[in-house]
Here is the input.
Amino acid sequence: MVDVRIDLHTHSTRSDGTDTPAELVTVAARAGLDAVALTDHDTTVGWHEAIDALPRGLTLIPGAELSCVSRENSGRTVSVHLLAYLFDSRSPALVTEQRRLRVERRSRLHEMAARMAADGLPIDPDRLLAELPEDAPAGRPHLARVLVSEGLVANVDEAFAGYLGSGSGYYLPRCDTPVEDAIDMIAEAGGVTVLAHPFAHSRGPSVSPSVIAELARRGLTGLEVDHPNHDASSRSELRELAGELDLLCTGSSDYHGTNKTIEIGQETTPRRVLDALAERADGSSPVVG
Ligand code: AMP
Ligand code: FE
Ligand code: FE
Ligand code: ZN
Here is the structure.
């Protein structure tokens, strides 16, 4: 059989990547990929642009990476990213939840900006909100850019280190979707879900195997095993867990353009795994270029 290359996790300028969706599919084809999933954070607005620019021979898997929260048995909450594929983006429950998140993210950002303004920092919370892009989720990166343009810090990294980190007095937590609800919502929208980089320990506390088992019972379809943030022992642990829980194992680069040093197609998913995902989904279809 010919070698088929599939990357199931990439970001465009519609979230925090640096390639537009059209550029991203061009880069994917040039890298010799046969299929690529567009999985912007919490949005599907890039899908049609990627489809319109799809090069001949490349298949686009419509997707998203949903910011979720999981409650461990200890009561501690852990931030979890859930990859969702081949769902209907117009599904009512999904649309309602995205509206809730959009509203809550905007008021959180306004409150963080108000705290900074009250401290004498040169930020106008109302102006910040008025200037936010309509179709992208409001987040700390927007606030970081204001701090840079006002000359308070040299770059976005310094803004996070000095003002926006979770240890800062200006920080407010997000109201992310409980991961169980997100799994239900995507299933209702005809899609499938894969837990993104579950053991990327460098990103903060990770979800425990017992919670992964609960999510599997809830309808989770797979685990992203081969990911640049996973070392060899995390990969073998996850593969074993996936075997026990009857979950599919995917591999993907989590490409962000020049925002990260990872190449598109650096990690890949076997064709039989993509076929199995597609077989279980009927909310939207892979688009063949
Ligand atoms: P929020 O969703 O508002 O909590 O912001 C989180 C987003 O900020 C993440 O998705 C990252 O893209 C970005 N971010 C987090 N930490 C940093 C950092 N140190 N430097 C640059 N961007 C960051
Ligand atoms: Fe990202
Ligand atoms: Fe992620
Ligand atoms: Zn990602």
